[in-house]
Design a protein that fits this description.
Layout (H helix, E strand, L loop, with lengths): L12 H12 L5 H8 L3 H9 L5 H5 L11 H16 L6 H14 L15 H10 L13 H6 L2 H7 L1
Helix pairs in contact: 1-2, 1-3, 2-3
Length: 160
C-alpha cells in the first residue's frame, strides 16, 4: 500500500496567473485551462471567482488561517514586550495573552478570542511566537528595587 502525501500549492505561480487570466478573458474553461497550464482545476476556479483581487494577488495568497491581528499591531506588541523587559518587568504568558486580547478589542479587530476569559488562545500564542522569533517565553524572575537601582552604569563602573 502506497501512501500519498498531500501536494498543496505545488503548482507554478506564473502558470496559475496565466490560467486565471485565460479564464477571466473567456478564452477557455476551467477544465481546459487546468490541463493546458498544468494547475489544479478547483484552485483555478477559486482564483477566478475572486473578482476583487488581480490574478497576481490571488497567486500570492497563503495557505491556512489568516492572522487575527494585523502586522502593525503584532509589531506594537513585540515592541511593548521588549520595552517591558528592558524595564525589568517581564510578562508571563497569561498576561501577554490578555494584553493581545485587549489590543484587539480596543482597536475593534474582529477576533475569535475568548470573551469570557478575556484572553487569546494557546494556539494563537504558539503561532505568534513562531512568526515573531525575537520574543521567547520564559518565566520572569523577581527583582528587588535595590538591585535594579544599583545596576546602573555608575555603580557597575565603580565595582570594576
Amino acid at each position: 500500500m502506497i501512501l500519498q502525501i498531500a501536494q498543496r500549492k505545488k503548482w507554478d505561480p506564473e502558470r496559475m496567473k496565466a490560467a486565471t487570466e485565460a479564464m477571466r478573458n473567456k478564452e477557455m474553461g476551467s477544465y481546459r485551462a487546468s490541463r493546458v497550464y498544468n494547475v489544479p482545476q478547483t484552485t483555478l476556479e477559486h482564483n477566478v471567482q475572486d473578482w476583487q483581487k488581480s490574478s497576481s494577488e490571488t497567486v500570492k495568497t497563503k495557505l491556512g488561517r489568516r492572522q487575527v491581528l494585523p502586522c502593525e499591531a503584532e509589531s506594537y506588541l513585540v515592541e511593548h514586550c521588549l520595552l517591558m523587559e528592558i524595564k525589568f518587568f517581564g510578562l508571563i504568558m497569561v498576561e501577554f495573552m490578555r494584553l493581545a486580547y485587549q489590543l484587539a478589542v480596543r482597536n475593534r479587530i474582529k477576533n475569535q478570542f475568548c470573551k469570557r476569559n478575556g484572553k487569546t488562545g494557546g494556539k494563537w500564542l504558539k503561532n505568534f511566537l513562531r512568526r515573531r522569533p525575537q520574543i521567547s517565553v520564559r518565566s520572569p524572575e523577581g527583582l528587588s528595587l535595590s538591585r535594579v537601582r544599583d545596576f546602573t552604569p555608575e555603580p557597575v563602573a565603580r565595582f570594576f
